[in-house]
Amino acid sequence: MSQDDLKRAVAQAAIEYVPEGCIVGVGTGSTANFFIDELGKIKHKIRGAVASSEASALRLQGHGIEVLSLNDAGYLQVYVDGADEITAHMHMVKGGGGALTREKIVAGASARFICLCDASKLVDVLGKFPLPIEVIPMAQASVSRQLAALGGQPVLREGFITDNGNLIIDVHGLKIANPVELESALDHIAGVVTNGLFARRPADVLLLGTPDGVKTMTA
Ligand code: 5RP
To answer: Which of 37, 58, 86, 149 has the most CB atoms at less than 10 Å from its CB?
Structure first.
């Protein structure tokens, strides 16, 4: 079974979590793309979607799904997205695709977060995947110095600009023992827009793609 097969399987399973007539919060990335394709098949059963990136908005519209702004949509019943790493406590590292800020906004405005991952992303401790941080461009050097002081190795994501016009610094070498604490600490560095730890608002349900089928996990 390929990784794409596992992603497709969790995307199909996620459709069960989409209430009829709702506006769906939609994440970003290759797994979210599989979910968007599944959503296209039931588009007559939903009112529309709120996208966490320009790329997801385009894909949703390509399926004929109406994309609403979060301001117009209000509080959402469900948000569906992938992750780069996740623990059994439902704490995640996200932002490999650089959409972390809008993802965190839409996730925070949703009653339920359904996370879709293949089994390789379930870890005991977060941090093997470099932690993405979105920064205001003028703060890149000063934020990098402060990240280094915390014990990480900050690397600027070359040639990448976020949908919000900012930069991404990927922090390597962090062993994240307390994700809730670190998420708050990183948010207090001036110039940081968002960090890729999703721990204060963890996922509610993890649909994990394994060769033996889709496993459902909750914290
Ligand atoms: C994008 C994200 C994605 O959810 C994360 O990178 C996982 O992507 P993929 O499904 O392609 O493995 O956070 O900003």
So the answer is: 86
What's the predicted TM-score (pTM) here? 0.97
What does the pLDDT read at residue 175?
Answer: 80
State which fold the 131-195 domain adopts: Alpha-Beta Plaits (3.30.70)
Q: Which two tokens mark 116?
A: 């879709």
Quick check: CB of 209 below 6 Å from ligand 1?
no
Mean local confidence (pLDDT), 70-89: 98
Per-residue model confidence (pLDDT) at position 1: 83
Looking at domain 3-122+200-217, which CATH architecture does it have?
Answer: 3-Layer(aba) Sandwich (3.40)
- Distance (Å, rounded) from C-alpha 10 to C-alpha 205? 12
Domain boundaries, the chain: 3-122+200-217, 131-195
Pairing between strand 131-135 and 167-172? antiparallel
Q: Is 81 in the pocket of ligand 1 (CB under 6 A)?
A: yes
| Cβ(96) – ligand 1 distance below 6 Å | yes
Question: Cα of 103 to ligand 1 centre, how many Å?
Answer: 10
